[in-house]
Amino acid sequence: MTSNHDDHDIPEQRPDSRRDARRVRDFFSVPAPVKRVFDRFPLITYPENDLPHHAWSTRRGNQLFVFTDAAGARRGAPSFNPQCLKWQAYLKFVGIDFDIVPSNNHASPSGVLPFLLPALPVGTGTPIPSGKLQKWAIEEVHCEEEQQLNVRFEVYLSLLDTRIRSAWLYQLYLNHDNFEAVAQRLYVNPSSTNFAVRAVLAAQLQQAARDELLKSSAYIDTSALEAEAAEAFEALSTLLGDKTHFFDRPNPGLFDASVFAYTHLILDQKMGWKHNRLEQLLSQHGNLVRHRERLLGFF
After folding, report:
1. Which residues contact 203 (CB under 8 A, 6 or more apart)?
2. Which partner from 39, 78, 114, 175 sits 20 to 30 angstroms from 49, CA to CA?
3. How many CB atoms lie within 10 A of CB 3?
4. Domain 151-297, CATH 3.20.20 — does that match?
5. What is the full DSSP assignment across 109-145?
6. What are the two backbone dihedrals, phi and then psi, of residue 219, each rounded to the nearest 5 degrees?
7. Environment class of 240 (CB within 10 Å of its CB; exposed 0-12, middle 13-18, buried 19+)
8. Structural domain boundaries of the chain?
9. Which residue stretches, if any, does this entry annotate as coiled coil (predicted)?
10. pLDDT tens-digit readout, 110-126
């Protein structure tokens, strides 16, 4: 795989951010019972860990570890996390069978979700991180490496990894109503029933999103974020045109999965958005909406 845009997890810290990781490790100098609660916090990049042991360990097929809940895992439902959903969708699109396992970053050997535990070779137990999933899939089913087939791949992927991702961060984590209705429910509340612990987790989560946005701007300009997302959606809509899949592929591929990871979650009513400006912007492009509807049929 040639792209390195997947080196960040969501939520919402780049694994190579050593400064942030050190700050978090310092923060984790707390009593063990509290630390066990913080182990579920989805922003943190952790040192490598042993593979988790759980009820899914007896399964013999490929296992993809993602952010989801137990009910979603049983149904094979789309993950509520864009980075996880991207790879979940991609593996489905190229025809690889797998089970979904609910997880969190601390359970990942690399500190980042998703990762895959392959069924074969038997007994190796070697996990495959997201950055190597495309290479593994190509070797398994001999699908194409799309980046080598179209020089526009990386250019348009950057729209997702910068403009749409930034608007997503703001809408999910920094819009107060959305944070309480969506992010708090998905990432904070499952970690603890203790109000004080939840409050600290929520503050850390929002600050990490704020820090990420301030890496590219001196201040957070909501109007600018929305305008850039609107331009990105327009560019993607133009790229797709009247085709079924991006780059006129006969079957959906990695780029389709990358787009779907955002468009599905933006349009998914079950996410429980209170304010969804991204839905308003995305809905102006009927071909992107129909693209999402077609790909949802894989789930």
Report:
1. none
2. 78
3. 18
4. no
5. TTSSS-EEE-S-STT----EEGGGHHHHHHHHH----
6. -150, 165
7. buried
8. 62-141, 151-297
9. none
10. 888 999 999 887 666 78
Please tell me the predicted confidence (pLDDT) of residue 28: 39
Any alpha helices (H) in the chain, and if so which ranges? 18-27, 32-38, 70-75, 82-93, 133-141, 146-149, 153-158, 165-169, 176-178, 195-214, 222-240, 254-267, 277-282, 286-296
Q: Where does residue 181 rank: exposed (0-12), middle (13-18), buried (19+ CB within 10 A)?
A: middle
pLDDT tens figures, 184-205: 999 999 888 999 999 999 999 9
| Gap between the terminal Cα atoms of the chain | 25
225 Cβ neighbours under 8 A, 6+ residues apart: 166, 167, 170, 213
Report the C-alpha gap between 139 and 44 in whole angstroms.
31
Give the Cα separation of 197 and 38 in Å (integer): 8
Class of domain 62-141: alpha beta
